[in-house]
Amino acid sequence: MSDPLTRLAVIYGTDKFGYHDYTPNYHCLFQHLRDKPIKMLEIGVGGYGDEDRGGQSLEVWRDYFPKGEITGIDIQKKTMDLGPRVEIRQGSQVDEEFLRTLVAERGSFDVILDDGSHRNEHVVQSFGVLFPTLKPGGIYVVEDVQTAFFPRFGGSITLDEPNSVGLFASFVRELDEDNPSVADIASLERFHNIVVAHKHMDPNVGSGIFGSRSFEHFSGRSAQVLVIGDEECALSAFPFSVGKLHHHSTLSEEDLGLKDYDIVVLSVAQDNLKCIADMTRALTEMRDNSVLVVRCAGALKGFRSTGPVMDFVTERFVEVDHREISIHYSDYQPSPLAKSIYAIERTRGAILFRKAPNDYPSNFAFDPEHPAVSEALSLMESVVADEANEGGLVSFAEILARHRSKLSAATYVDRLTEMGAQSRRYFMLAISTAYAKKDEEGALRLAELALQHFPDEPQFTTWLSNSLVRKGDLDRAERELRSTYERNSRARRAAIAGLTRILMLKGELEEAAELTKSSIGMFPIKARAQRYRFLSTVLLRMKDSAGAEQALMDAAECERGAGRSKAP
Q1: CA 364 to CA 361: how far, in whole Å?
Q2: What is the CATH number of the domain that holds 183?
Q3: Cβ atoms 77, 93 nearer than 8 A
Q4: CA separation for the pair 515, 533 (Å, rounded)
Q5: What's the pTM value of the predicted model, to 2 decimals?
Q6: Is residue 517 part of a domain?
Q7: Which helix (H) or strand (E) holds 43?
Q8: Rounded to an integer, what distance in angstroms lies between the CA atom of residue 146 and that of residue 157?
Q9: Average pLDDT for residues 233-246, to the nearest whole number?
Q10: Number of domains observed in the structure of the chain
Q11: Is residue 118 among the annotated active site residues?
């Protein structure tokens, strides 16, 4: 059974579910706002540089918030029409003048979601401009914060500034201190690849840790609660149903049966190493889908930003993304707790840990055989079987084609064809599926049709020429590629790669060699090695063994350069 937001995500084909596991958490965050006339801003429309691509998540928010006004911004021009309640504007997420004009004309916003460039300096700068403009009680979400650890996004394992996770981790540390940077923050939450900042309704009033939506998990049943270190804590402290309240003065060496409780409340009067030992023990022994609350008691009015408790909490806060850190740093060793802390919430004077499996293999290490992913794919299959939307069908079929087989997507391609699909992504999927089925005529026909709709798409040009070559029509393939090369700057690399191949097949070796040599600099460094190897093949056919050997040496040098550019 899926929640309404996840179902919409599957129907429209956003990667917020499937490649990621975001929407179940977003539903918990936003469900209380569903029927309100909210204003939401999403940074990043998607689809990269193509005007017609992207917008899937804006469609989701439009339908999830039926009374909401949805705004999307993207640095690229976007031309899709998503209805009267959705407006897309072109602009940079780090252009302060653009953002302030946007807020003046479309805000103030109740929800801001940063799914933009994911570059750390951009995330930090956008937050600095936009969070102060958020409505009181508003929610600011940053998505895909795993890039905090990716060097190519300005990230690092040491969280060198500016760093998205580093910024919010500093807020977690400082929340109990008199610091202007956290004065408007009511609470912070951490999920896999996500951080959330809640803005105060009233800077002088906080709802407290027991107002957390994490306790909605126990709705409909009476929670079993153990309170440690606060004998005066009564049922009235909990704004949810409690079956029986158990007390214990300390977390002693004896077996307290922590696995039997839904909620354990650890009240601490000192910020010291014993707190760390108690938290570690509780998180180790408690069962899945339980909650540990650690709160200040007695003379302790807040946790020190540089104290042992905050050191422990920020370490756990960072390693929520242990999977992605491990991908980029092979010697990284997460703590034994990393895979079992699903969420962390920080309010003034308290921390909440939700214990549950945290090992979803998101897009950077996607594994369709992982139990959680297998369950997600089954859910997606059931949703698209009931509600056929082009975006959702294409997205699900793309996952099948990429991670199972292209033939496994064929049924969905047929459904899309019957629906009259004409999107760029549909043609990409349909042509690659036709090749997998060895349907050369079908692939040629689809490539011709795709170029009628998207004449500037390099991949369609490549597929058309490949189909013509397989058909033996080298002359037409050459004409098509020369035309593309002359009129379409975006497709020139694809045209050159195809054209030089055809020239070699036709025996026009000198032109093939000269065009290859003159164009190598147009290709990114990681693709140049392949071009040099192709040049070597042409030169060998021309009996130029010395030139061919030099081309292979150049290819090897390009590969070494590409390897150096990937190093952290």
Answers
A1: 7
A2: 3.40.50.150
A3: no
A4: 14
A5: 0.91
A6: no
A7: strand 39-43
A8: 11
A9: 83
A10: 1
A11: yes
